[in-house]
Amino acid sequence: MKYRIFCHVSFLMICQIHIMAQSFEEIYSHFKLEAQNNHIEFRNECNDKYIQFLRESWKWYEGKAPLPLPKEENTIPPIHFINKGEESPVTITPIDVEPIDNTPQPKPIEPIRETPTPDDRYFSMGFFGNKCEVRLPELAKLNLNDISPKSIANAWECLSVDGMNNTIRDCLETRLRYNLCDWAYLMFLDKLSKSYCSNGNGAILLMAFLYCQSGYQMRLAVDGNRLTMLYGSKHQIYDKPYFDLNGTKFYPYGDISNSISICDGAFEGETPLSLMICSEQMLGGGLSEPRRIESAKYKDISVRSQTLLELIEFFNQYPTSSLDNNPMTRWAMYANTPLSRKTKDLIYPALKSSIENCSEEEAVNKLLNWVQTGFVYEYDDKVWGYDRAFFAEESLFYPYCDCEDRSILFSRLVRDLLGLDVALVYYPGHLATAVRFNNHTKGDAVVINGQEFIVCDPTYIGAPVGVQMPGLDYDKAKAIVLGR
Fold it and tell me: How much is the average pLDDT of 336-359?
């Protein structure tokens, strides 16, 4: 009898638990659906609000003159080291520059949900050697010959439909798949829009819509009979005109007149573009011709180098900029950009082999001499006609480089191969590096936040670790510690 009662009670409890589980599942499903609907409604409200801006909020603005690239008046040429025996080490305390802020990439104000559609079709195109596929509906082929505020607003309204959700998702997935930095992503959206939409103004609006919905800060502008897009950035971009909108610099993507009409309506949650490259750009597959780079002093360092041609092409189109109006951040952005995995696989085995079983100082001396003697120095003005800093990859590709290029490459090698902290050290007319060794190391040093960094100059040819180039203005030295 007791057994029957127990079984009956147990059966009721199981039924109750099952009902509760169903109830919880239904509650969760309802909550999830409601949350998704709220996301959609909020994004729709933001687009509706922006459409209203497009109908009304246009003003005339005058452009600002481009910020000229800083130019060194008295560039210090490379010199050869002559050992004069034991000398007293020089210690300088430079003006320290704050490390560069590494903030996450922009994202949509709300998650973009997959939207099943019966006519999903993928549009394919090449982008720096990669095949990219994005779902694009016919409605994205805008024919925008009339660029009155009303027509622009109507076109934006046409794009603000569920049918574009898959397009936005595919674009963001492409950014993630290839590690595209903000600038690469903008270039991708530009090419996608122009490849899909033959109408020039329609392609600009499509690019602006995808860029905006991805979370980026932008403004639409009318220049005569052309529509254009301005992108907001916290960087000071050199040699490009800009428009000051409420204290924020907006740069035109492409050529533009000095006086234009701009819709100064902000989209919810918009984030300015960053020009930092925090991860390897997964671009291309074609390799350059092999190049042999050897150290004059250490004969065991002989490297066969090749670089990705599409990556070099991308770097060639990258705008030069700084943060907080500090030119040193420009060099730090180049130096903090990682080498591609392909380049590492090609050159790092030989470099690692030459420095294995070496002390830190011996290893750095070998890498230093390889950069000092394996590359040909030449002034940027003579080669390019203007000052141009190289990403580390570019110094391995182009036949000539100068002091800043050598410092950027050397700093990358020391951080990657030895895991040591490195700072760029600027003296008027010259850029060098300094390394923070784990063990006490003698020589000229800079003190940064109380820590001693030993000078290693890739342009003082033949000079070992701890020797500064003579004749520099040590009192005006500045330094910035690089990221790992």
Answer: 97
What's the distance, CA 404 to chain centroid?
19
Bridge-based pairing of strands 248-252 and 243-245 is: antiparallel
- Distance, CA of 452 to chain centre: 30
When pLDDT is averaged across residues 189-207 and rounded to a whole number, the result is 98
| Cβ partners under 8 Å of residue 424, min gap 6 | 328, 331, 332, 335, 407, 408, 411, 431, 432, 433, 479, 480, 482
pLDDT at 19 over 90: no
List C-alpha distances in Å: 281 to 134, 179, 185, 278, 416: 19, 5, 11, 9, 17
Q: Are 222 and 208 in contact (CB under 8 A)?
A: no
Q: What SS3 state is found at 192?
A: helix
* Sign of the CA dihedral running 238, 239, 240, 241: positive
Alpha helices for 141-228 (secondary structure H): 149-159, 165-177, 182-196, 200-213
Q: Check whether 197 has a pLDDT greater than 50.
A: yes
Using CA atoms, how far apart are residues 225 and 145, in angstroms rounded to an integer? 8
- Contact of 328 with 97, CB cutoff 8 Å: yes
pTM: 0.90
Please name the residue that has the structure tokens 């690089």: 482
According to DSSP, the residues that pair with 293 across neighbouring strands are 303
Ramachandran area for residue 239 (φ above 0: left; ψ -120 to 50: alpha; else beta): left
Integer distance in angstroms from the first to the last C-alpha of the chain? 74
Which residue in this structure is represented by tokens 């409890």? 13
Q: Distance between CA 411 and CA 408 in Å, rounded?
A: 5
Nearest partner of 466 among 476, 481, 453, judged by Cα? 453
